[in-house]
From TrEMBL:
Limits of the Aminotransferase class V domain: 5-370
UniProt EC number: 2.8.1.7
Catalytic activity from the UniProt record: (sulfur carrier)-H + L-cysteine = (sulfur carrier)-SH + L-alanine
Transmembrane residue ranges: none
Pfam families per record: Aminotran_5
GO molecular function ontology, one term from the record: iron-sulfur cluster binding
Protein name per Swiss-Prot or TrEMBL: cysteine desulfurase
Source domain of life: Bacteria
Xref: InterPro entries: Aminotrans_V_dom, Aminotrans_V_PyrdxlP_BS, Cysteine_dSase, PyrdxlP-dep_Trfase, PyrdxlP-dep_Trfase_major, PyrdxlP-dep_Trfase_small
Family: Belongs to the class-V pyridoxal-phosphate-dependent aminotransferase family. NifS/IscS subfamily.
Length: 383
C-alpha cells in the first residue's frame, strides 16, 4: 500500500480541516490580545467565550467552569497540586492525601511522586486484571483526610473505561473531591459531569481532532481551587498568561464536531476494531488482548505477543508504512516494561511484546486487512 496507515490515534490525531479553517483568521486577521479594551482585541475575547460555551455544553457544565490550559498534563498537574493546597488551606496546614490508581497516565503518577516527596501521602486503589478499579473496595481507601480522588476516565494504553460514575458517587457521598483525567475519553464517549459526579476533569484538544498545545480543566463552580500559574488576571484570575486564541478556537470547533459525529464514527471504528481483534486472535498464535473487553474505548485494540519485543515490531511495521505504538507515546523508548501492564499482572515476557492499535474515522477495512497481513509476517519473522 503506497500511503501511510495511521493506527496510533491514542497518541495524537490529525487536526481536522474544519478546525484548521476556524483557527486561521485568529492567526493573522483577528490577532488582538483578548485582554485589551478595544474592539480589535474584543473579537478574540468573544471567540474564546464562544469556545468555552461550546465545550461546557458537551459535558453539561457551565461556561464559567471551563478553564483553558496548555493540555492534559498541565490540567492534571493543576488539579492534583492545587487540590492538595486547597486541603492544607482549609485544614489548618494539614497535608491530606491523594487516592489514585496504578494505571494512570504519567502526568498523574509523576505529579503524585513529586507531591509525595513534599510530604503528601499517596494511596492507590486496587485494579483487576483488565485495569478496572474494583468498586467494592474503593470506599475502604477513602477517609476524611483524602484531599482528592483521581481516577482516569479511560486508559491510554489498554483502552479500559473506568467506573467513574460509581467512584464519583462514592467520593461525593463522603464529601471528597473527585477528578478524572479524561484525555482519552473526551470527544469519544459521552460525558456528563453532573450525572458522573465529577468535580474536576482534564482534556486535551489534540486527542479529538484539535490542535496540539491546548486543553482545558473543568472545575465545579463551588470549588475554590487556587491558581496554578501566577501572573495576569486571565481565565477569571485562575490561570495567568495570554490565551492561545487560535488553539482555543480550534479546540472549540473540534469539540463541536467530535460530539456531533461521535455516534456514527464510533459505530464504524468499533466494527473495524473488532474485525482487527478477531483476525489477530484467530490467525496469530501466542497473543493476548489487554484491557477490558466490555468496558473499552471503541478505537482501542491492545495486545501482547509472546516471543517478540513490541518496540522492534513497531519499527518493522513502520517500514511497511504502518504507524502503531508499543505502548504509551509518552513513555516509548523507556527500558522499563509498561507500568500499566505490570499493574494488571502481565508477566514480563508477555509485556515486552505489547502493541497498541488505535483507530480513527478515516481508517478503512482495506487498511486493516493490509495491517493484519504485514503484522503476521513481522511476528513470524521475529519469532
Amino acid at each position: 500500500m503506497s500511503k501511510m496507515i495511521y493506527l496510533d490515534h491514542a497518541a495524537t490525531t490529525k487536526t481536522l480541516p474544519e478546525v484548521a479553517e476556524a483557527m486561521e483568521p485568529y492567526q493573522d486577521i483577528f490577532y488582538g490580545n483578548p485582554s485589551t479594551i478595544y474592539e480589535f482585541g474584543e473579537k478574540s475575547k468573544v471567540a474564546i467565550e464562544h469556545a468555552r460555551s461550546v465545550i461546557a455544553k458537551t459535558i453539561h457544565a457551565k461556561p464559567e467552569e471551563i478553564f483553558f490550559t496548555s493540555g492534559g498534563s498541565e490540567s492534571d498537574n493543576w488539579a492534583l497540586k492545587e487540590a492538595v493546597h486547597l486541603y492544607e488551606r482549609t485544614h489548618q496546614g494539614e497535608k491530606g492525601y491523594i487516592l489514585t490508581t496504578p494505571v494512570e497516565h504519567h502526568a498523574i503518577l509523576h505529579t503524585c511522586r513529586e507531591l509525595e516527596e513534599m510530604g503528601c501521602k499517596i494511596s492507590y486503589l486496587p485494579v483487576d486484571e483488565s485495569g478496572r478499579v474494583i468498586v467494592g473496595e474503593a470506599e475502604t481507601y477513602m477517609s476524611e483526610h483524602t484531599a482528592l480522588v483521581s481516577v482516569m476516565y479511560a486508559n491510554n494504553e489498554i483502552g479500559t473505561i473506568e467506573p467513574v460514575k460509581e467512584l464519583g458517587y462514592i467520593a461525593g457521598k463522603r464529601h471528597l473531591l473527585f477528578h478524572t483525567d479524561a484525555v482519552q475519553a473526551y470527544g469519544h464517549i459521552p460525558i456528563h459531569v453532573q450525572h458522573d459526579h465529577i468535580d474536576m476533569l482534564s482534556a486535551s484538544a489534540h486527542k479529538f481532532g484539535g490542535p496540539k498545545g491546548v486543553g482545558f480543566l473543568y472545575i465545579r463552580s463551588d470549588i475554590d481551587l487556587p491558581s496554578f500559574i501566577q501572573g495576569g488576571a486571565q481565565e477569571s484570575n485562575h490561570r495567568a498568561g495570554t490565551e492561545n486564541v487560535p488553539g482555543i478556537v480550534g479546540m472549540g470547533k473540534a469539540a463541536e464536531l467530535a460530539h456531533m459525529r461521535m455516534q456514527m464514527e464510533n459505530r464504524k471504528i468499533k466494527y473495524l476494531r473488532d474485525y482487527l481483534m478477531h483476525r489477530i486472535l484467530n490467525e496469530i498464535p501466542d497473543v493476548i488482548v489487554t484491557g477490558n473487553r466490555k468496558f473499552r474505548l471503541s478505537n482501542n485494540a491492545s495486545f501482547c505477543f509472546k516471543g517478540i519485543t513490541g518496540e522492534a515490531a513497531a519499527i518493522l511495521l513502520d517500514t511497511q508504512g504502518i504507524c502503531v505504538s508499543s505502548g504509551s507515546a509518552c513513555s516509548t523508548g523507556s527500558a522499563e516494561s509498561s507500568h500499566v501492564l505490570t499493574a494488571i499482572g502481565v508477566e514480563e515476557d508477555w509485556a515486552d511484546g505489547a502493541l497498541r492499535f488505535t483507530l480513527g474515522a478515516e481508517n478503512t477495512k482495506e487498511e486493516i486487512e493490509y495491517t493484519i497481513e504485514r503484522l503476521k509476517m513481522v511476528i513470524s519473522d521475529m519469532r
